[in-house]
Amino acid sequence: MNLIPVRIDKPEPINFILGQTHFIKSVEDIHEALVNAVPGIRFGLAFCEASGDRLIRWSGTDHAMVLLAQTNAHAIGAGHSFIVFLGEGFYPLNVLNAIKQVPEVCRIFCATSNPVEVLLAETGQGRGIIGVVDGYPPLGIEDEQKIDARKLLLRQIGYKL
Predict the structure, then answer these.
(1) SS3 state of residue 156
(2) Of 28, 19, 29, 16, which Cα lies nearest the Cα of 103?
(3) What is the pLDDT of residue 69?
(4) Predicted confidence band at 161 (pLDDT cuts at 50, 70, 90)?
(5) Residue 136 class from Cβ within 10 Å (0-12 exposed, 13-18 middle, 19+ buried)?
(6) Calpha distance 119→116 (Å, rounded)
(7) Given strand 127-134, what is the order of strands in its sheet?
(8) At residue 101, does pLDDT exceed 90?
(9) % of the chain surpassing 90 pLDDT
(10) Residue 117, Cβ neighbours under 10 Å: how many?
(11) Sign of torsion over alpha carbons 63, 46, 12, 127
(12) What does pTM read for this prediction?
């Protein structure tokens, strides 16, 4: 078995969701979940089929995001994995629960705009996602000033009263 890190290739402000699902119907169901959760959402979705034709299946509403999804799904190459890239101004917070409710979705590995490395195990059969390295390690522990700043930010952007 080989351990392989694959860096997600994306522009800095773009958010994405990486997960595992189990059925070809996932592409249409995840697409529907996204557009029902946020009308007008811009996204690209790619799914690595693990049997049958073993194609990278895809869908989306934004050509650039679809290309990002296809390219990164191909680089990961792990069966039954999916990746969704959200257009600028769209966030996982608004769609993550909808994706989790798709019956075929087994797990979510990450939902972030951070730099990410996907850790893959490669065997003679293929590749599987072991986990992800999401962002960077902490530089310290939050103090009272940083707590106040965090609370203020959440109120400024409308997530808290």
Answers:
(1) helix
(2) 29
(3) 98
(4) confident
(5) exposed
(6) 10
(7) 2-7, 116-122, 127-134
(8) yes
(9) 95
(10) 14
(11) negative
(12) 0.94
Question: b/e for 72-109, b at 16 or more Cβ within 10 A?
Answer: bbeebbbbbbbbbbbbeebebeebbebbeebebbeeeb
Q: Which residues contact 88 (CB under 8 A, 6 or more apart)?
A: 13, 14, 42
Tokens of 131: 């986990």
Are residues 19 and 132 in contact, defined by beta-carbon separation less than 8 angstroms? no
**Pairing relationship of beta strands 43-48 and 81-86 according to DSSP bridges:** antiparallel
pLDDT band per the 50, 70, 90 thresholds, residue 151:
very high
Average pLDDT for residues 91-115, to the nearest whole number? 97
Neighbouring-strand partners of residue 83? 18, 46
* CB contact at 8 A, 2 and 67: no
Looking at residue 149, its pLDDT comes to 95
